[in-house]
Amino acid sequence: MKLALVALALVGCTQGGGANPYACMAAGGAGCFELPTAPIAAITNVPDTTPELDCPPYEVVQSAAPRTLRGSTFYTVTVEPARDVDVELFADAERTVSLGQTASDESADFQIDVASLPNLVAARTTKDGFLPHVHLYERLDLGLPRLGLLTATQAQLDERLRSVGDRFLPNRSQLTVLALDCSDTPISGAIVNIAPVSGKHGSRLFVPDVRVYYTGDDAQPSRRTELTQTETRPEVHVSNVPEGHYFVQLWGFLTEHDMLLGPQALKLLDEVEITITPGEAMYFAPLRARI
Predict the structure, then answer these.
(1) How far is the CA of 69 from the CAs of 58, 109, 111, in angstroms?
(2) Which of 52, 130, 222, 270 would be 250's cystine partner, CB 3.0–4.6 Å?
């Protein structure tokens, strides 16, 4: 797999007159790792609200007694209820430990009875004519476990990509990320990167030819010339990820002072591992900033 050093890319893409993200991507994908132009902030009705970053580590536990997970299925693009969607529930992000399966009913609702339900699960939806949709790192309230799941056709996602000058490539998958603080409040000023190795020990690598699009006020992905970080919405779209094992990363500056210091002050706010399987699919993963 071709790799490039993000530290070098940050210099090449931010000097002199602003970045040219498409030129950077043509040179190897570095345009997907442009520096934020503002420190991170919580997206609330109060401007410049400080995000919650000091939550304790999330402890994965299992219910001591059987639990019934209830939920609903929706179409990704219209967010309308989706009936007759097959639902599989897993205890791990690699989708190897099954917790049960079912299908949503005429009201687009479903339920799965689990003998011992963990509070962190993965799920996969399938439906004839639709792409598999994989939800990862979904947190549950074991007191009243509920889950909303999505489904979409390849044509629908291709249309969304074409609106920003991209397209759905064969044998590639699409990924949607949510940029949140550790209390699940959306945050602005964050950037998303997908890397072949962890960034926790200082490594800054990216996957060439994978593009990142941030969501605008209209709830649609924006061109890289329009948005290069999260602003008013937390959704981030990562296009055409090849088969493989990756680290999905959330980065940002904590303060205005950090911004002045430049790339060395950029913080890794969260990182999760994902495995993209062969073929075409849609993946969803929340990222929760915590330091």
Answers:
(1) 20, 11, 5
(2) 270
Instruction: Report d(CA 20, CA 27) in Å as an integer.
Output: 11
Q: Give pLDDT tens digits for 101-114.
A: 999 999 999 999 99
Q: What is the dihedral of CA 276, 244, 178, 85, to 10 degrees?
A: 0
Per-residue pLDDT tens digits for 87-98: 999 999 999 999
Neighbour tally for 45: CB within 10 Å: 5
What's the CA gap between 221 and 235, in Å, rounded? 8
Write out the E strands in 76-186.
86-90, 98-103, 109-114, 120-126, 133-139, 146-151, 173-181
Find all residues with CB under 8 Å of 61, minimum gap 6, and list them: 118, 119, 142
Q: Are β-strands 187-188 and 41-42 bridged in parallel, bridged antiparallel, or unpaired?
A: antiparallel
Q: What pTM was computed for the model?
A: 0.89
In the chain, the N- to C-terminal Cα span, in Å, equals 31
67-152, CATH topology level = Immunoglobulin-like (2.60.40)
What are the start and end residues of each CATH 2.60.40.1120 domain in the chain? 67-152
